[in-house]
Each structure stands twice: as C-alpha cells, then as structure tokens.
Amino acid sequence: MYSETVMDHFNNPRNQREIPDADGIGEVGNQKCGDIMRIFLKIHDNVIEDASFQTFGCGAAVASSSMATEMIKGKTLEEAWEISNKAVAEALEGLPPQKLHCSVLAEEAIHAAINNYLEKMGLEPWEEGEGSCAGCSGCGTD
Amino acid sequence: MENKHEIYLDNAATTRTHPDVVSAMLPYFSLHFGNPSSLYSIARSSRTAIEEARRKVAAALGADEREIFFTSGGTESDNWAIRGIASAHGKKGRHIITTAIEHHAVLHTVEALEKEGFEITYLPVDEYGMVSPESVEEAIRPDTILISVMLANNEIGTIQPVQKIGEIARSHKIIFHSDAVQAIGQIPVDVRTMNVDLLSISAHKFGGPKGVGALFIRRGLRIDPLLYGGAQEQRRRAGTENVPGIVGLGAAIERAAAMMSEKAERMKKLRKRLIDGLLTIPKSRLNGHPTERLPNNVNIIFDYIEGESILLLLDANGIAASTGSACTSASLDPSHVLLACGLPHEQAHGSLRLTLGEETTEADIDYVLGVVPTVVQRLRDMSPLTPKELRTR
Ligand SMILES: Cc1ncc(COP(=O)(O)O)c(C=O)c1O
Ligand SMILES: [Zn+2]
Q1: To 5 degrees, how large is the angle CA B106–CA B108–CA B112?
Q2: A44 C-alpha to center of ligand 1: Å?
Q3: A138·B309 Cβ contact <8 A
Q4: How many domains is chain A built from?
Q5: Pocket test for ligand 1, best of B70, B75, B184, B336 (most atoms within 8 A of CB)
Q6: Cα B200 to Cα B106, B110, B125, B291, distances in angstroms
Q7: Which InterPro entries does the record match to this protein (chain A) (predicted)?
Q8: pTM for this entry
Q9: CATH number for the domain that contains residue A59
C-alpha cells in the first residue's frame, strides 16, 4: 500500500525526538481523527536550524512528519511556510488517497510551530491560506 | 520484505484453505466439471458431490439437509436472510432488531432497508461487547418481524447469549437470524438448541475456500430469494452451483467439526499465554469478554499508540495481525465494535487483534510476546501522548 520512501521514513524516522529548548512547537490533529503531530523548531536568524517531531498516528502520519522535518531544515521561515502537504506527499513518492489527510497534518504542524515562534517573539502570527485539512473527514465533524 | 518468521495471526480475517480440502475440491474443476442441473451421466458426480456436501453441513449444524442453501459466502447469507425476510414479511411489520456490533454485512443491509422505510433498533452492548437478552425482549414491538444477533463477534470474539435470545424470539413468534460466520469450528453450533430460524456461515473462516458459504433456513419458513434466475437450490437461490467451492465447504466443515473440541482446548491455552503475556505491558487492556469469547481471539488496547503503525512494525517482524484503527479503514472511523463497547475514540485507534489458528504454536506465541513489547515501546517513544514515566528516551 505504501511507497518504499514512505516505508523507509516509517521504519527509520528522521528527527524523531523532542527538542527540549525548542523556539517553536506546533501540535495539530486530534485523537478522534487518529493522528496527532507535534513539531519542534530551533530557529536562528529567521532560519530553521533544527526540526524534530513526535507523532501518534499511522504509517503515513509518521512518514509525513519525518519527511516534513527533513524538508524544512535549513529553510527560512517563509520558505518553510510555503511547503505544502502536496510537496510532502510528492517527496514521499505519493500517498494512498485516503491517507492524504495525514500529510495535511504535517503542513499544519509546521504552520502551528512557526506561529508559536512568532507569538513568542511578540510578532503577528501568519494567516492560513486555503486548503488546509482538506480530505480529513474525521476532523471537526460530529 | 524478506522475513525469517512468518506468523499468521489473522485467522478471523481468513484461514488457509487446508491442503486436504484443496485435494477434495480439485477433481471438481476439470474432471467432474458437469453442470449439476444437467441430466446426462457426466453431470451426475457434480450433483452427488453437492448433496454430499449438503449432508456434511447439515450434520455439523444439527440441521436437516433440506434446510441448507449454498451461497457465495457470509455476506450473501446475511444479505439474503435479512432482505429475504423483509421482503416476504414486510406486510406484517417493518421493524427489525439487531445489534450495534454486527458485521457490516448485516449493518449495511439493515441500513439499506432503513432507506426503504423499515425501522431498525440497534441494541447496545455492555463493556464486554455482550447483548442482554432482556434488551431484546424490551425492544420487541407488535410490528417486529426479525431479530438478527451474531453468535460471536469478529473483532473482540464475544459470544452472545444466542440461545436465550432465540427462546425470546420464539415465544414472541418473531423470526431469528444469527451470523455464525466466526463461530464454526470454534464453539458448538446447533440450530435447534440455538432456536434460530436462519444462520449464516462462510467456508473461508474454517479452512475452506473463499467465496462460498451457506444459509440455514428452517423448514417451512417463508423467505424471498435474493437472486433470481434458474431453479437451483429448491428454487430459492439461483445460479449454477460453485461445485468445487461447495465440495470444499463440505470437506472443511466436516474437518472443523471433528477436531473442534480438541482444537478449542489448545487455542484456549495459547490464548491465555498470549493475553497474560501482553497484559504485562503497562497501560494495556483486554477488549471483549474475559471468558465468553472465541477460543482463538485476542484483542488488546495499548494506550498512546495507533493501530496501523503497530501492524506495520509487526509485519516488519513477520507477524500478520489486524486492528480496529480508523487509519486502516477508508472511512477514517475507528471500529464501531470498540466504540459500542464504550471505548473513547483515541483508545479505539490503538487496538490490536491477534486471532490464532490451527497452525499456531507455543513458539509462535513466545516469539510474538518477544516482539510486541519492543514495538509498543518504540511507538510510545515516538508518541506525543506518552507520559514521561513510560518513555525510554
Ligand atoms: C461475522 C462475519 N460476518 C460476515 C462476514 C462476511 O463473510 P464473507 O467474507 O464470506 O462474505 C465475516 C467475514 O469477514 C464475518 O466475520
Ligand atoms: Zn493517518
């Protein structure tokens, strides 16, 4: 069901740890939905120097977290913000359609972590664009 | 992935077709290929084989051979029982009683009838997944035409008090159907003591082939066909018979019935070893009933982790299992059975079902008991929900 890249990131997750002195932490998802993702950022001069994650969820959720943290390391906050769930899914060589919501969580977790940092710095959080949480029929309903 | 170990613990999903069963089936593909409805002599062996299989199924269920009708499996049997009764008795009443924990073959069928104007009562279950006979009695209305309660649940293995429910149905003159798909070969199934009018079985759950099953229909019961066409199966189920499949069903049920009590004893011992071992993992709980459960069923919740990732890591270790997690279903909903037992969503996501089979050995169980704690710990270390004291890093 999963691509080799997904299985590789699931079996050997990159950056799977806590950053105790993180500058920004973002947590998204809910237990009802089945996936919860927490992303930690270490930020210096507007650049993400280190990123890590903790995830409760399926193979796709773990692999998306792992890939997303790899993709944002070394990026400016603006660049990291622009990384879409589509880009994460593509980097993973695709996800089954019913699993796309898991990669949406990765995008949201990055946004939440960046905004957490901005707020800590006394700055305005950035606005979400359109298209988040699409396809996750489990979130927010009933 | 290449594995040293191949441990199949998903026998509730399906079982290996037993080699003896395959041998029994093989002549009915190319050698005795005649259409059982034909008159000429080369078709006679097909007809004889079907009737022989019917006798075996009837004997295993304590039924008369004229009460056994072959189908394409558990799903068709459930659909036929429910739709056939709704159609034949819909003038008398439009109320059906079932339970919240039935297989989708039952639940989605009654949901379809709901759209056609039938009213359905879904009986709740207790924390062990047990339906109370009193709740059945209370749900009965003057317009109730059918009660459908499964004999044993496929996810948590809970065995329902079907005999009592059957007595209640009988005393109210209401037709009673039971889905016994998971029970055959595991616990005694006798249509007379159970007081059932209709009973569904499926060959691939007890060493037979996939795509063949049967519906027991009590003699004299009025039921409409599901499939219309030729005059097969006493004009009740049209379609040229799946002769090799039916022969396989007969061979498998005869085998399963003969070895049942011995196998059940062995399964119960292995089950106990597995449950006791798994419950030493902190924050783990058994789902389903502690004693009134199928001898081969183990279903455990591990807090803070998600089922699909457990399965993937077990698979990497050569263990095939199953989960009630939403992430393995297309619907994103966790198991309706675990939710009906009162589990919160987050726990229903973390269930692991291991269903033993006739090939399962003590060494398999010990291997699994070695692997699961490592897998659980690895995922707990990864999870944001895990409390500090349960983390190793
Ligand atoms: C309780 C129950 N009923 C019905 C079915 C459906 O049977 P089949 O796969 O033969 O259609 C199954 C098997 O998945 C089952 O476990
Ligand atoms: Zn997921």
Answers
A1: 115
A2: 57
A3: no
A4: 1
A5: B75
A6: 11, 16, 21, 24
A7: NIF_FeS_clus_asmbl_NifU-like, NIF_FeS_clus_asmbl_NifU_N
A8: 0.93
A9: 3.90.1010.10
